[in-house]
Automatic annotation (TrEMBL):
Catalytic activity: 4-(phosphooxy)-L-threonine + 2-oxoglutarate = (R)-3-hydroxy-2-oxo-4-phosphooxybutanoate + L-glutamate; O-phospho-L-serine + 2-oxoglutarate = 3-phosphooxypyruvate + L-glutamate
Protein name listed in UniProt: Phosphoserine aminotransferase
Record key words, sorted: Amino-acid biosynthesis, Aminotransferase, Cytoplasm, Pyridoxal phosphate, Pyridoxine biosynthesis, Serine biosynthesis, Transferase
Organism for this UniProt entry: Salegentibacter chungangensis
Family according to the record: Belongs to the class-V pyridoxal-phosphate-dependent aminotransferase family. SerC subfamily.
SUPFAM superfamilies (UniProt xref): PLP-dependent transferases
Pathway connected to this protein: Amino-acid biosynthesis; L-serine biosynthesis; L-serine from 3-phospho-D-glycerate: step 2/3; Cofactor biosynthesis; pyridoxine 5'-phosphate biosynthesis; pyridoxine 5'-phosphate from D-erythrose 4-phosphate: step 3/5
Amino acid sequence: MKKHNYSAGPCILPQEVFQEASQAILNFNDSGLSILEISHRSADFVSVMEEARELALELLGLQNKGYKALFLQGGASMQFLMVAYNLLEKKAAYLNTGTWSTKAIKEAKLFGELDEVASSKDKNFNYIPKGYKIPSDADYFHCTSNNTIFGTQIKDFPETDIPLVCDMSSDIFSREMDFSKFDLIYAGAQKNMGPAGTTLVVVKEDILGKVSRQIPSMMDYKVHIGKDSMFNTPAVYAVYVSMLTLRWIKAKGGIKAMEERNAAKAKLLYDEIDRNSMFEGYAAVEDRSPMNATFNLKSDTHKETFDKMWKEANINGLNGHRSVGGYRASMYNALPLESVQVLVDTMKEFEKKSGK
Ligand SMILES: *Cc1c(COP(=O)(O)O)cnc(C)c1O
């Protein structure tokens, strides 16, 4: 029986995508070949790569606006350094909202001066800093839209004249926004778009080519753009499954429909966290992420009981990250509302059984 999968990443993907992707392993496009054994230069795969890049731009509303989409390897972690390699000449500004921002900052420091404009480290990253100033003489401003580990999300992005770079790994394609505000967006596929192994980069071409350093080919966005994301062998299967997921998002009504689904799931769970006398939320209420809900037991007395109950309810992946503890329910695009209902029912049942 399929589990209710709350895993933070790699994570649940649509059941229809699993079906089609498994078929392609045996016989891709009725070619008599597995997708795993064909050349990445074959017409069949080239069209997968083109469709994936096109769908990414289309869903984000960025077609014909000077952007290129790339599917690269090395994860979002590689982007921490690739961004700085390509954009940091003298100084960069970073907002520190968690583990991933902290890692991005560490890499960028290797390339130049770093201005950390604000940080929520003082409260173990349970909120998003606001009202900070972005220096106008920085080469770019970097932020993390959704903090997967701490369960916070930036709702309003700052206005700035310098290029805006955003790590959207865990909420890309989950909510509507004016994506043309951003000059570079990157996202590891395995949170909301596909399997592990590829990373989407959407970059406005005119911000590139401005640093004086030499950039190794594999690190150079311009090289990857020049080769249509096929400078070397791409992660063929990961790109294919991502493409299927992007098709699924489009068929369901695009990002707008995803946002509505996600809002309904988030409301159901957060309302229960707030109502239930056994639990308390971790993230500041106004910054709560619809993607990753973090919460704790008010007392650990009945922890064993609750853990046993959700496992018996066929729920997977509910344990919080070790730096926060407690619980984390990741509710990415593909998680059905019914799975959230099962969790909420389990929480209610637990309160009845163990509450006073
Ligand atoms: C998971 C995650 C990363 C790291 O992704 P990798 O693909 O494992 O390198 C970076 N940023 C955010 C926001 C994440 O959730």
